Amino acid sequence: MFTIITGAQFGDEGKGKVVDLMSGEYDLVVRFQGGDNAGHTVKVGDDVYKLHLIPSGFLLDSRVLIGPGTVMNPEVLLREIEMLAEGGIEISPEKLGIDAKTSIIMPYHIELDGLRESKRTEKIGTTKRGIGFAYIDKVARDEIQMADVADETRLLRRLAELAPSKASAIQELDGDPAIVTDESLVGKYIELGKRLAPYITDVSYEINRSLEKGKNVLAEGAQGSHLDVIHGTQKFVTSSCTIAGSACANLGVGPTKVDNVLGIVKAYITRVGEGPLPTELHDEAGRQIQEVGKEFGTTTGRSRRCGWFDLPLLKKAVYLNGYTSIALTKLDVLSDLDPIRVCVSYELNGQVLDYPPEDTEELAECKPVYEDLPGWKGDLTGVKSFDELPEAARSYVLYLEEKMGVPVEYVSVGPAREQTFRKETGN
């Protein structure tokens, strides 16, 4: 069985926890795009793990893989491996595999990212971690791959070839070009490569062989559907394809192998950084959602902008991904809000739209049209099944399910694994 998981909004929907919950049913859990600009938080008991690269399935028996469609900072990855080791969790080469073709984020990528953002008159909200520039090099065939970093001779030869153009680009942005050939940084990457060399694998081969043997594979995306570099709210997007179809291309698995596509959907909506958010709240309800939901970015620490559920954007995500089911997260955050509002359409230039306009500037001008639903009171974090939810909370879930046109399979009422249950069976 091959299942793909993506976020249906602007990221931060709680994919990490859902992957952790499901990974016990899967032999392989694979990351298919993005870099350490993404982050997920997994809570097990009293332990909280904030991760950026290692797929969430590491806590159970799954083997976890980083696919060639990702861009990877090896220093960040080793830091995560060491952090988990301190907590008694060993991430050995038997547990983690990194594709040989995975693009490596180099120090000059990070430098270029920061310099370019500082020069923009209109900021796009980059995390300045070099993600975009690593993807630029991948498309331009100027990338340094995992296999290069693992071989000192190859790495030095590749750096010698690329150094003049990278130094020139940094100098043009008023930066210090010395970072490209800095001996201490080059030496650090040589050592990082040696330490990570045992983890190198062929991810496409592993996945396809596993599927042939009847094993289960879970592909995990980063960010959210509306941050997709092609279909998202340009230019306020990430640098990779975040939707389900890109899992096949990025991992080297044919689309006929896909069995399920699970969309992770927050019971409201949030966004980090710049870009349109039609239902954004600037009132007490928005502040309550932000505080109760602890809406601060795992990677950046920035406050997330919060808004009511946006059905037009969700309809587009359903089309973009072809979801077969939904996991609805953070339902507990909406407790003690009354009414609870749902955006069912937009008003734009005198017209009513039930689907987002393609143009980002037009989306920014859209005014939400709401339907109000009754709220509920009380703490939901101890609820163990759908039937235990207050009637108004159950009605809200069923209302969204009907409007989305996709069945809700999971409901989450807290950050821990045990605070998520199947809607139908209650377990």
Explain what the structure shows:
GTP binds at residues 11-17, 39-41, 304, 330-332, 412-414. Its main location: cytoplasm. This is Adenylosuccinate synthetase. The chain is 33% helix and 21% strand. With 427 residues, it is of the alpha/beta class. It has three domains: 2-99 and 199-260, Adenylosuccinate Synthetase, subunit A, domain 1 (Adenylosuccinate Synthetase, Chain A, domain 1, 3-Layer(aba) Sandwich), CATH 3.40.440; 103-197, Adenylosuccinate Synthetase, subunit A, domain 2 (Orthogonal Bundle); 265-323 and 330-409 and 416-422, Adenylosuccinate Synthetase, Chain A, domain 3 (Alpha-Beta Complex), CATH 3.90.170. A hairpin with a 2-residue loop joins strand 16 and strand 17. Helix 3 (107-119) crosses helix 4 (131-139) and helix 3 runs parallel beside helix 6 (152-172). The radius of gyration is 22 Å and the shape is globular.
Any descriptors?
alpha/beta, single chain, globular, 13 helices, 427 residues, Adenylosuccinate Synthetase, Chain A, domain 1, Adenylosuccinate Synthetase, Chain A, domain 3, ten-stranded mixed sheet, 3 domains, four-stranded mixed sheet, 20 strands
